[in-house]
Amino acid sequence: MKTILTGLRPTGNLHLGHYFGAGKNYLKMQDDYDFYLEIADVQALTDNFDNPDKVRKNVYEITKDLLAIGLDPHKVHIFIQSKIPQIAELTVFYSNLVTVSRLQRNPTVKTEIAQKKELFGNNGESITYGFLGYPVSQAADITTFDGELVPVGDDQLPLLEQCREIVRKFNSIYGETLKEPTQVLSTTTRVKGLDGNDKMGKSLGNAIYLVDDEETIRKKIMGALTDTNKIKKDDPANPDVCMVYYYHKLVNKEANTTKVCSECQKGTRGCVQCKKELIEAMNNFLKPIQEQRKYYDEHPEVVDQILKEGTSQALQKAQEQMSKIKKAMKIDY
Ligand code: ATP
Ligand code: MG
């Protein structure tokens, strides 16, 4: 059985981007792979170090969201990153194998620094050592579990490339020890945000969360970006630049979506009506997930137990891998 490692940062609840870009894939893969799913609290702290309560709370929130979409804890090892010290250890070893300028050039890191001006300054001049180095720690995440396949969204591809470089460098110096991971891209491309941003993201404030209640959904969809050239209700418009049509395609039935598209183009559909229909479709889509989640909200001890077991299985794997690595590096005293 091949090993899969993937991670989620406990910085907020899961959103539609996670569901379509990641979670749906996990559901398909959980039967066929040895699947390690990391709740990346240490990584979340790299840009939330001043807000430990947020990270702590979201470890449980994310776990419950994952269980709610149907992940089976008997098949997937759901574990907490900070409980696996080998990852931190390996991050230190890898930090010798990557240059600072290579990290600064990493496109994912660059985009994220630009998005976090408040924290890292207008030109990234206040970037921390920890945040700049998070791709190194992500390489440690993957290789601690000997991850061969890594399901990620396309926003993460440069991070995986960075991991492969570290693996090659490690193997060329210390001998063939680590596997080069390959990505498993989901069939859905990146899910866009309510504001039209090409990524829906927890830190971008443009997400529809799986836990959003009816009133929240109504407000968010009512405020979603539509074709700005459409002024009057019966103006013909371009659905391809409208986020309401975009989400209809994700959660509504195909027949309804086709109707939305043609009526929008002809100008026989007003945006308010269109949004109301989307609100209904969205709530119908979220309902079964929220019903599943209720059980875990009412049974926090079950969630604790799942994390405990997943973490203990992950720890065992990490210890085995670390002895191999230390032997190769001649630090197996
Ligand atoms: P943050 O803003 O804190 O980084 P995030 O919304 O980017 O949060 P992550 O926990 O960083 O979420 O990402 C978890 C996984 O979900 C990654 O594999 C990522 O590629 C995928 N993912 C996140 N957002 C989207 C999206 N909008 N579309 C598709 N996949 C996504
Ligand atoms: Mg992210």
What does this structure look like?
By secondary structure, the chain is mainly α. It folds into two domains: 3-191 and 300-328, Rossmann fold (3-Layer(aba) Sandwich), CATH 3.40.50.620; 214-292, Orthogonal Bundle (Tyrosyl-Transfer RNA Synthetase), CATH 1.10.240.10. Helix content is 56%, strand content 8%. A three-stranded parallel β-sheet has the order 1-2-3. Helix 3 (52-68) crosses helix 14 (271-298) and helix 9 (134-144) packs across helix 10. The protein starts with a strand and ends in a 5-residue tail after the last helix. The mean pLDDT is 95. Bound molecules: adenosine-5'-triphosphate (ATP) and magnesium ion. Adenosine-5'-triphosphate (ATP) binds next to helix 1.
Which structural traits does this protein have?
three-stranded parallel sheet, Tyrosyl-Transfer RNA Synthetase, binds magnesium ion, Rossmann fold, 333 residues, binds adenosine-5'-triphosphate
The separation of the N and C termini measures 32 Å
CATH topology of the largest domain: Rossmann fold
Radius of gyration: 22 Å
Mean pLDDT: 95
Q: CATH homologous superfamily of the largest domain, by name?
A: HUPs
Order of helices and strands: EHEHHEHHHHHHEHEHHHHH
Number of strands: 5
* Total separate domains: 2
Q: In CATH, what is the class of the largest domain? A: Alpha Beta
Bound compounds: adenosine-5'-triphosphate, magnesium ion
How is the main sheet built? 3 strands, parallel
Q: Identify low-pLDDT runs.
A: none
Q: Estimate the global geometry from the Cα principal axes.
A: globular
Q: Which second-level CATH architecture of the largest domain applies?
A: 3-Layer(aba) Sandwich
Strand order of the largest sheet: 1-2-3
Helix proportion of residues, in percent?
55-70%
Structural class: mainly alpha
Total helical segments: 15
The percentage of residues in β strands lies in: 5-15%
